[in-house]
Amino acid sequence: MGCIPSKTSAAAKVEEPSASTLLQTTQGQVVEAEAVKAEEQKTDTEMVKEIAQLKSETAEVKQKTAEVKQELKQKQELQQELAEVKQELKQETTELKQELNELMEFTIPEVKPEERPAQIFWMGCCDSNFIQLNITEVKPEETPAECFL
Prior knowledge:
- The protein is mostly helical and 149 residues long.
- The protein has helices at residues 7-15, 19-107, 117-125, 144-147.
- The protein contains four helices and no strands.
C-alpha cells in the first residue's frame, strides 16, 4: 500500500498558516496592540488631565467654602454683638426712664389749694411793695395794656 495522504493531514496542512501569514498576523497583532496601547495612553493622559482639572476645581470649591464659612462666622459674631448692644441699650433706657421718673417726682412743686401757680411766680419774682397787681381795679372801658401805662 502506498502512502496516500489522508484527508486529515491535508486539512491540517490547509489549516496551518504559512510563515508569511504568521508574520503578517503577528505584525498586525503587534500593530493592533500598539494602537490599543497608544489609545490607552491617550485615554490615560486625558484622564490625568481631567483628574488634575477636577482636583483644581475641588481646591477652588474648598477655598470658597472656607471663605463663606469665615464670612458666616463673622456675621454670626456681629449679630451676637448687635444683640448684646441692643440688650444693653434697652437696659440703659429702662434705667434712664426710671431715673427720669424719680427726678420728675422731686422737681414738681407741690401746689397749695389756696395759691395759684401764677401768684407764686409773681410773688417770688417781684417785690410786693414795688408792684401791686389788682385785677379787680381794671375798668371795663380800658384794655389790660392801658392799665400798665
